[in-house]
Write a structure and sequence with these properties.
The structure is a single chain. The protein is mainly α and about 300 residues long. The chain is about 75% helix and about 0% strand. The protein starts with a helix and ends with a helix. The mean pLDDT is about 85. Keywords: Membrane, Transmembrane, Transmembrane helix. It is found in: Membrane.
Length: about 300
């Protein structure tokens, strides 16, 4: 509990600060639309290609994590012995359909559903686990917990645990893309403080179990938003000087559907290849989130 709370709160406030730095960069340089543009400022064309590649892979891993979570949720809800591969395909199809709207304005209402579902799911989780603990032999006093880590914790176990917390505060990754569509970009500080504080509270006080049925919207909507970010990046890169990038023609919409289908398919492959959720998050944290959310913003 001691190390866990320190990490959840400490890393959370660091993430808020680095998001503030990213926001300042966006306000000073409005032409920065995504992390690839930051790479250009730092290392020229090579930086642009490197950061864009890393950014897309990060998004694919995040979408893959949502696909894997959806698979786990559907398996738990149905209690079925159907092969998890089937639920994985179902999750990927749902993610794809929710990503069809190409702008964040079009999915605004889903954002409210997203937020409500996770708050309700957390409430249900806290209440039911509290009731179960109270009714169990010994009551709340008998609940197993420890102030300090268990004995003989391996480096891998500790690293995966920290990696999962780092991944949980990855909201800075898409901040450039989100600020692009804000009516008043300078108001970004309200967003990062609200999100950061809520996440710190949620991650610090909530147990690991999740009310999957209620949490399904957040699993799929949040994943789809990342698909939209990846799709918009690819479209702007591949069709920089073409009207196709604006998706206001039949050809544009057809291209958009092909792009998000490919992104979703790649994310599904990642989810199927790395079927252990903690390992998937830790790998993504090590490779990408650590940079985008923590050590690149100070360089900016």
């Amino acid at each position: 509990m001691v190390a866990g709370v320190i990490c959840c709160v400490g890393i959370g406030f660091i993430a808020i600060y680095t998001s503030y730095v990213i926001g300042q960069v966006k306000l000073a340089l409005p032409s920065v639309h995504h992390y690839g543009d930051v790479g250009t400022l730092m290392m020229g064309r090579f930086g642009y290609e490197l950061f864009t590649f890393m950014f897309l892979l990060q998004l694919v891993f995040v979408i893959g994590s949502h696909c894997l979570t959806g698979t786990i949720a559907l398996t738990q809800i149905t209690g079925s012995d159907i092969c998890s591969l089937i639920f994985g395909i179902v999750s990927a199809i749902i993610l794809l359909h929710l990503a069809i709207p190409s702008s964040f304005a079009d999915v605004t209402i889903l954002g409210y559903v997203d937020f409500a579902s996770i708050i309700i799911a957390i409430g249900i989780t806290i209440i039911t686990t509290g009731i179960q603990a109270t009714d169990s032999p010994g009551g709340l006093a008998a609940v197993e917990w420890s102030a300090f880590p268990k004995e003989n914790v391996t480096f891998t176990e500790a690293y995966v645990a920290i990696g999962n917390i780092v991944f949980a505060y990855s909201f800075a990754t898409c901040q450039f893309s989100f600020m692009d569509e804000m009516h008043t970009p300078k108001d970004f500080t309200k967003s990062i403080w609200t999100l950061g504080i809520l996440e710190i509270l949620i991650y610090t006080v909530t147990v690991s179990r999740v009310a999957f049925g209620i949490a399904l919207p957040v699993i799929f909507i949040s994943g789809a938003i990342n698909t939209i970010v990846a799709g918009r990046l690819i479209m702007s890169r591949a069709f920089e000087y073409s009207v196709i990038r604006y998706m206001n023609t039949t050809k544009g919409w057809a291209t958009w559907l092909v792009v998000i289908s490919c992104v979703t398919l790649l994310a599904w492959v990642v989810a199927e290849a790395i079927q252990f959720f903690d390992d998937l998050l830790s790998i993504a944290s090590s490779l990408f989130t650590s940079g985008f959310s923590f050590y690149l913003p100070p360089i900016m």
